[in-house]
Amino acid sequence: MVVLNKIYTRTGDAGETALGDGSRVTKYSARVSAYGTVDELNATLGVARLHAEGEMAERIAMIQNDLFDLGADLCTPNMDQDAEREYPPLRIAQAQVDRLEAEIDEMNPKLEPLRSFILPGGSALAAHLHICRTVCRRAERLSVELSGDEAVNPVGVKYLNRLSDWFFVAGRIANNNGADDVLWVPGANR
């Protein structure tokens, strides 16, 4: 259980922060950049959720919870020590990736195949989901970069990869099942 009864601690005033295992790193470390970008994605998704209703809002809420799980996963280094810990850290699970894939598979048949790239826009929800998609891709790139130097849960990287696809498909659903997508016209303004 998390208890936050004091918000500021002053422990980060010198430019360091604590990770999930208690170790301290600089606030610009690759690990902090990765989970910080996941946090940014979650905040961005919160804005998108303001424009969602029904099943879409429910799915977004689930993803927001998953993103907190992913942040907890990324902020706890040394995966090789998970089995030895008194309290095993939270790690993203394959079932969370599978759920995203099932939702994409359920949404995609409602859409006509694309004959052009689409521009971010259309409805407010679609535009916000496209922002989420790009922030998600950045979180994925930072997580992959981190994995070049430190152990990272590969399922977490897979989750981010699938999630950006989910945002793309959901953005099209939010545009009247793709009917209101804004199509790119190559060279239109030459």
TrEMBL record:
One of its GO terms (biological process) is cobalamin biosynthetic process. It catalyses: 2 cob(II)yrinate a,c diamide + reduced [electron-transfer flavoprotein] + 2 ATP = 2 adenosylcob(III)yrinate a,c-diamide + 2 triphosphate + oxidized [electron-transfer flavoprotein] + 3 H(+); 2 cob(II)alamin + reduced [electron-transfer flavoprotein] + 2 ATP = 2 adenosylcob(III)alamin + 2 triphosphate + oxidized [electron-transfer flavoprotein] + 3 H(+). One of its GO terms (cellular component) is cytoplasm. Its main location: cytoplasm. It comes from the Bacteria. Residues 7-173 form the Cobalamin adenosyltransferase-like domain. Its EC number is 2.5.1.17. Pfam families: Cob_adeno_trans. The keyword Phosphoprotein does not apply. Belongs to the Cob(I)alamin adenosyltransferase family. This is Corrinoid adenosyltransferase. It comes from Gymnodinialimonas ceratoperidinii. The lineage of its organism: Bacteria, Pseudomonadati, Pseudomonadota, Alphaproteobacteria, Rhodobacterales.
